[in-house]
Design a protein that fits this description.
Layout: E1 4-8, H1 13-23, E2 31-34, E3 40-43, E4 52-57, H2 63-79, E5 84-89, H3 108-119, E6 123-127, E7 142-145, H4 148-157, E8 164-168, H5 174-184, E9 188-195, E10 198-202, E11 209-217, H6 221-232, E12 237-245, H7 251-256, E13 262-266, E14 280-283, H8 286-297
Parallel strand pairs: 1-4, 4-5, 5-6, 6-7, 8-9, 8-11, 11-12, 12-13, 13-14
Antiparallel strand pairs: 2-3, 9-10
């Protein structure tokens, strides 16, 4: 068996440390420097020849900087004769650009996949891709992990009783809502937004604890719309949950004053201290990703994590 090495870049060092703790290995040293003009330099103080390496990176804000760190790191590892280069992407930047919505638009999620393969990546381990079909953009193995079990465990510990309903914030989120509902053995409902003036709820939420589930919280607009619609429909209280806490463009200010009971995210993206607010809870995907690395490295199925 080839030596296993774990590397962290600057996208989410705290998560990498949790993954390393689960695997039972220290993070291998790597110097990642940024020059004044924005260029990235990476140095590997130790040999990686013949090693199976896992590079842990979140392609989150600053997206392009973190992506270039990843590309340059993979190039360095390939040129240093690493045996297998596996990339753990806790947040896949550009994942929402997965199709042409209008004429002459790029499919940037596919471009990112092409660039990673061209760079010499042998395997991708990703968390909650915006669309499952992004796996098909790659011609290398992709292990696509999801956080609904972790989020389900969180809500089970709250002991909310039987009057719980899981909410999809729009029709496209029904599949994710169904996955969490199956974890919690609850019904689902859907926020039906035709336009800004016509927002309703399909399904019964009156007198129930409503859990709005999404893959990410970016601007927070869907959470705001869902909260208003559910409150108008008579929900007892409203929780919001998402895998990725992007929190851009004033999202925190819009969300924290709503009256949500709790907002639950994972640590796929390193949380900026200025985005922390009362009622925000964060759960870690580190143990799940660490278990995945151990299973992959020993050539075992990771089905138990799905």
């Amino acid at each position: 068996m080839h030596e296993l090495k774990l590397f962290s870049l600057n996208g989410n060092r705290p998560l990498a440390e949790k993954i390393a703790a689960e695997v039972g290995l220290p993070l291998s040293p790597a110097r990642v420097n940024h020059f004044a003009d924005g260029e990235v330099q990476i140095e590997l103080p130790e040999s990686v020849r013949g090693a199976d390496v896992y590079v842990i990176q979140s392609v989150s804000d600053p997206v392009n900087e973190n992506f270039m760190e990843l590309m340059i790191m993979v190039d360095a590892l390939r040129r240093a004769s690493a045996h297998h280069i596996n990339v753990v992407i806790s947040y896949y930047g550009y994942a929402r650009a997965d199709r042409k919505a209008r004429s002459r638009e790029p499919i940037t999620a596919k471009l990112v996949a092409n660039m990673l393969e061209m760079d010499g990546v042998d395997r991708i381990v990703a968390v909650e891709l915006h669309a499952d079909q992004i796996q098909g953009f790659f011609d290398i193995p992709v292990d696509h992990l999801k956080a609904h079990r972790l989020i389900g465990d969180y809500f089970r510990k709250l002991n909310l009783g039987d009057n719980v309903v899981v909410i999809a914030p729009d029709h496209s989120g029904t599949k994710q809502a169904r996955a969490l509902a199956e974890e919690l053995h609850t019904p689902i409902a859907i926020v039906d937004k035709r336009d800004q003036e016509h927002i309703g709820v399909i399904g019964n939420v009156e007198g129930m604890h409503a859990i709005v589930i999404d893959d990410l919280i970016d601007t927070g607009d869907r959470i705001v719309d869902s909260y208003k619609a559910l409150s108008a429909a008579g929900a007892l209280d409203v929780y919001a949950a998402a895998t990725h806490g992007v929190f851009s463009r004033g999202a925190v200010d819009r969300i924290k004053h709503l009256g949500l009971k709790k907002v639950v995210i994972t640590d796929t993206i390193q949380l900026d201290p200025k985005h922390q607010f009362e009622g925000l809870d964060q759960i870690s995907v580190g143990p799940m990703l660490g278990k995945a690395i151990k299973l992959i490295n020993s050539n075992q199925s990771i089905h138990v994590l799905f």
